[in-house]
Amino acid sequence: MSHDVPESTTGTQRPRFGKRSRRAALLGVLGASLLTVGVAAFLPPDSPDPVLVGGPQGGVSTLDRAIRTAEAKLAKHQQDPQTWAELGAAYVEVARAKADPAYFPKAEEALRKSLAQQPDGNGIALGGMGALANARHDFVGARDWGEKARAALPDNAEIHGVLNDAYTQLGDTAAATAALQRMLDLKPGVSSFTRAAYEFEIHGRVDDARHALDRALADAVDPGDVAFCRNLLGELAFDNGDLDTAQSHFEAGQRAVPLETSLQQGKAKVAAARGQTAKALAGYQDLVARQPNVGNLREYALLLSSSGAPESAARQYELFEEQRRLEVESGANVDLEASLVAADRGDAAQALRFAQAEWDRRQPVFVADAMAWALHLNGRNAEALTFADRAASTGWRSASFAYHRGMILAALGRPGEAVKALAEALRVNPNFSLSDARTARTTLANLGGAG
């Protein structure tokens, strides 16, 4: 087994962030220039897709084999801090792959056993604890574990990836960029290029983000990594209003890993945007049966609500609450997701309570947006605009951010600015939300703008 902290058993640390579940704050001038140089140095001309190896479930089977190997080794010899650390890291990844928070305590137990057996210089276990904290949305903890891991293994690329994820989520732009740059310097590949793409995207550099993802895809060999890159390319296309390209990437990803749920979610979302409601509902119904995580349950509930099935939507929200409790019991934090669902259901007070709790922990732009929307729902529009300004500060071409800003401006009696923001939301992605896009068009018409 490798002495590096595993990116994952398929070669890629896959962040579970809300944008989806994604991240960051404004880059400083120095950070932006360093990132531009670092990424550009590794972006070659377009390449054909790699030849796939392994079976249709390549990523998952690789993960299962790694766990079985580690468990068999530990059954014979318990005093093995490296293998305990690698087992813990594998459990973190399987929790992500299966959306099952029950693996978090198992991961923590294995990693703490490693640290107990080797308390000094155990960078593998320290990095694993950082990855676990990121998965649980404990980004302060992830930062602290990651810094300890970096002190032990300063030239380990995956540890810098853990730190990039943590600092991005905390809104510490300079530290996030420095960690990403170091990761690119040490190990340009799928994991570092996908993170670079995300940094480009949140700063409005969509073409650069796409180029970085194309470079990641060219480097991907494992089917799980191919599917991962295809999903990110599909999401980028969808978020910028290109349904055909999004569909193409989701389908290509499924050719690599047919049962990957993120790709199924993408295809269901495209179907809903195209008005293929029955197809979209069937896709989401199967999706939540296979992977009932909080994100999938919320999207299914929203689709049911917009399709005129409020009782079925209410059942999905009940399941969301059950899943949220499971995640909290496993040590995870899902206050941001809880705020979004409370807002969906018209519970303004709860939406603000959860958003404020999240803001008190971290201040990236998407939490600023959640604060802005929750404050708006509570009639506190002047305060809401301050947070909407902060959400817009990086230049992220987010239709949802622009929609929220437009509705806040309309409530403040600033129709010209509201029209501009709402039109921008529909220009970026006319399908960003079935219900909110309808509201945006209606509000534009009422304000005298083009709807």
TrEMBL record:
Keywords: Membrane, TPR repeat, Transmembrane, Transmembrane helix. The chain crosses the membrane at residues 24-43. InterPro entries: TPR-like_helical_dom_sf, TPR_rpt. It holds the Pfam family TPR_8. The keyword Transmembrane helix applies. PROSITE patterns: TPR. TPR repeats lie at residues 399-432. SMART domains: TPR. Signal peptide: none annotated. Coiled coil: none annotated. This is Tetratricopeptide repeat protein. It comes from Amycolatopsis thailandensis.
